[in-house]
Write a structure and sequence with these properties.
The protein is of the alpha/beta class. Helix content is 45%, strand content 12%. The strands form 3 sheets. The chain has a 6-stranded parallel sheet with strand order 7-6-5-8-9-10. The chain has a two-stranded antiparallel ribbon with strand order 1-2. A two-stranded parallel sheet has the order 3-4.
């Protein structure tokens, strides 16, 4: 349950209560991921206990019994390259294709890249996540420090986005909040090697056999893995090519029948 903040810093539980009451009224409740489901039910009892009377704690189990996981479907086919991707001798390209908002921790991402740049490690970076406001000061300082390594900085439309996905060697998440991860799956589909936190919804997106390669534990581990990935293009390309087909389970071709099955159960 994501609390809103009032002007004085007090937690506003209004929207959380709307979510709770809507779920209570619903016939079925679906979450994007198992992590999303478990996170909600861990937060729900403490939320209800804020109410001194009639806190309805018995409804937690009622909602849980009618809850399930139904992943988001993604149109992967729209990402297929129009032309063949040419080999290049340019430094490896790192892709940032997540929203440029605080919950994705963009400042943590850019600071890691600046540290690698200061070490003299060759790489380029494309910053193409969607933006809903002015980037923070630390982000701007980091972009400036990276200088000519930044080949794109700003939201991109479909054709350029597709091109950047296929040109990228790796994508990185430093998110502090993630219930699914559409942009990460899009990158993986396009044979981009991912480095992701070993938490949130990411362990569900990445099959267990790839966890040791793709999931990191803390900032120092991320730095170490980035140094390795940027120095061994062949190794990460081989892993990325093996990982890419696993995204098929999130394509609408696989997800739509799951939705149809669930929705048909409501038919009169």
């Amino acid at each position: 349950i994501g609390p809103m903040r009032r002007q004085l810093g007090e937690r506003d539980r209004h929207y959380a209560f709307i979510n709770y009451s809507s779920m209570l009224a619903a016939d079925r409740v679906y979450f994007n991921s198992r992590y999303h489901l478990e996170n909600f039910f861990a937060a729900l009892p403490p939320f209800l206990r804020h109410y001194p009377e009639f806190n309805e704690l018995d409804t937690v189990e009622i909602i849980r019994k009618k809850s399930d996981v139904l992943p988001i479907g993604i149109d992967m086919q729209r990402l297929n390259p129009i032309l063949s991707i040419a080999e290049t001798s340019a430094p490896p390209l790192i892709l940032w294709n997540q929203r440029l908002e605080y919950d994705k921790n963009p400042e943590g991402f850019i600071k890691v890249l600046v540290e690698l740049a200061e070490e003299g490690i060759p790489f380029r970076v494309a910053l193409c996540g969607e933006r809903f406001g002015k980037p923070g000061t630390e982000w701007e300082k980091g972009v400036s420090a990276l200088g000519g390594r930044v080949i794109h900085n700003g939201y991109v439309e479909d054709n350029l986005y597709r091109q950047l996905l296929w040109e990228s060697a790796l994508t990185v998440s430093t998110a502090s909040h993630e219930f699914f991860g559409i942009s990460i799956l899009e990158a993986i589909y396009c044979h981009t090697f991912p480095l992701l936190p070993a938490r949130l919804s990411y362990p569900e997106l990445i099959p267990a056999e790839f966890h040791a390669d793709c999931l990191y534990h803390g900032r120092q581990d991320l730095l170490n893995r980035l140094r390795w990935a940027l120095s061994d293009a062949t190794a990460i390309r081989v892993i990325a090519e093996r990982l890419a087909p696993t995204t098929a389970r999130f394509d609408w071709a696989a997800i739509a029948p799951l939705y149809d099955k669930q929705l048909s159960s409501f038919a009169p």
